[in-house]
Known about the structure:
single chain; mainly alpha; 16 helices; 0% strand; globular; disordered N terminus
Amino acid sequence: SFCLLARATMVGTERNLLLKSSRYGDEPDSEQSDIQKPFNPISSFWNAVKAFAGAGTFALPWAIMNAGMYLGVAGTICIAILSRYTLQVILECARKLGPTTTYGDIAKASFGRKGEVLICALLLVVTMSVNVAYLVLIGQNMHDLFPGLPSVAWIFVAVPIASLLTFLPDLKYLGFTSVLGALSLIFAMITVVYYGLSEHLNEPIENYPPARVDTLALWFGSAAFFFCNHITVVPIANASGDPKRFPFVLDCTMVFVTVTNLVFAAMGYAFFKDETDGNIIANLPNTGVIVSIVRVCICVELLFSFPLVNAAGLTVLLSTSEFFRSNFAPFLDGYQEEEYDSVNNKAPEDRPILSRNILFYLVRVGIILFLGIVASSISFFGLFVSLVGALMLASAGFIFPPIFHIILFPERSKWRKALHVIIVVFGIFATSLGTYQAIEGIVEAIQTGDTGKSPH
């Protein structure tokens, strides 16, 4: 999220759309939403799949463990359905405002400038938190691969590499990494399933607790981390070529990612039981060529995804803060926002590959160094994912979208408004409880030295 924090390709897409995003007045023109390019459902489907797939996949088995087998599976399906509905709510709001609308623009149209600043601050924290999660995963996987160095050392090995990658102002040069990311994720999931089937599947399903109420809120945070991709859905819909027809693609996407990831999560918990780690890759043995290749692929993919997520967060600052845009943008003169081709979604062909603004580099080095320091203090990946999901992504997915819709569509029926109020109340309750329990778990993990593998 925020999200998501988002995956590599769509974070890059959001960056370009944010750079050329218009600022809406009091009366947005809904006629701007006409089709600008051919509708491409296949490409849109895989872009949407990549927006869901990622670090959250590796935390889902831990989430099922915290909810219990039956309640975890049933609850995850319910969260997927609720997320799909609020995603549709966001798409309706975006269509009313225009084809280059972002989540921040919807907030501005609903709450004014103060609302836009608040939401953009949330989006910035979400993207930076996802970056922290990437660094934690890199550190853990490299430590498992090379135990001679602690995970903290590997995090600071990754920091300068990630910093260099963020120096690219145009992220089209990293577009190839979306394929690498998809292959790495599939390879890792297959390896976990194969290893679990061959070594750990030795108990009947009746032996697993059907429900666990005491840690249910930790499950909610991890499920929200995975499903609440409301920040990226609008750019994906706009990039599809026809936002009116995109909801069917989104339906197919939600069914696909829910079924595949839920089966993977349930099997992962069935394999490792209460020893399921917040990062299920950590449950794999530290020996073996295949497992080592999986860990290397994941680390490489996360490194290449890091600058794309980081750019999405910094672009929020560029689009919101005049001070940041005037001092820290990659190109201060000659390549301003108005030079972007809004029809073909591309920058001027003669734009330099690298920025000549020294502040552009310094701010990125400083931010990534700070993120590295934060990541080095985290050894409980599952609890961290649950905190980010409950506190930030659930807010962006279950609290704000219904409020936006009530404000932007005052003519809608009172029954739908009542439904939205119920969703907001649920979102506030679940977010509060999930945040409290995640923080409580983190404090306990710090005091006991536990990594948050199993609270049971």
